[in-house]
Amino acid sequence: MRKRLNGTLCAYVVILLFTSLIFYQSFQLRYLVSKIIPLILCIMVYILTFAGMIVELRAIAKKQRREIVIDEDLGEKVKKPAKSMLECTAVVYILAAMIIIFGFLVASPIFVFGYILYNGGKLKTAVIAAACITIFVHLLFNVLLQADLYHGKLFLFLGW
Fold first, then answer.
1. Residue 38 and residue 143: Cα distance in Å, rounded?
2. Which end of the chain has fewer CB atoms < 10 Å from its terminal CB, N or C?
3. Of 39, 60, 88, which residue is a domain's last?
4. Has residue 42 been placed in a domain?
5. How far apart, in whole angstroms, are the C-alpha atoms of residue 81 and residue 115?
6. Residue 20, number of CB atoms within 10 A of its CB
7. Both 1 and 72 in a single domain?
8. Do 121 and 154 reside in the same domain of the chain?
9. 112 and 76 housed in the same domain
10. Residues 6 or more apart from 37 whose CB is under 8 A from it?
11. Are residues 145 and 121 in the same domain?
12. Residue 98 and residue 114 in contact, taking contact as beta carbons nearer than 8 Å
């Protein structure tokens, strides 16, 4: 009996193909500083995609639809479908777009702040995490590695 692949699994394959193209193009860049961020993002997408594919293949093998059980206010349990592949990988592409536009040091705290709030975190936690990630990125790249982080097209356009 042959099992039929669903649309989510096909989306994973398409994401892997596009990410592989970006990965290959990143290796064609001349300097390590230019390569590092696209390669890190590609590796993150690979990890998320392969993890999603494993979950999806297990669900197909068990013939179960992935669902999340959520307790409502009145104690009722409601089954809702798990997050789609587009929603799960969109965060990585949003981060990549923010890095291109605003630069790495500015995009990191904005992304962390928004990601925590989007996933139901508290405002105080989001602010503290965004501040910590900014300090960590600055210390790691600017101080320890002495690498000049990408400033973003907006700031390059403004002359900063």
1. 21
2. N
3. 88
4. yes
5. 20
6. 13
7. yes
8. yes
9. no
10. 99, 104, 150
11. yes
12. no
Digits of tens for pLDDT over the chain (160 positions)? Answer: 455 556 777 778 888 888 888 888 877 777 776 777 777 877 888 888 888 788 777 777 776 555 555 555 555 555 555 566 667 677 778 888 888 888 888 888 888 888 888 777 889 988 998 899 889 888 887 888 787 777 888 887 887 6
Whether the pTM exceeds 0.85: the reply is no
Which of 60, 88, 116 finishes a domain?
Answer: 88
Please provide the distance, in angstroms rounded to a whole number, between the alpha carbons at the two ends of the chain.
Answer: 62
For residue range 82-126, what is the model confidence (pLDDT) as tens digits?
Answer: 566 667 677 778 888 888 888 888 888 888 888 888 777 889 988
Does 107 reside within a domain? Answer: yes
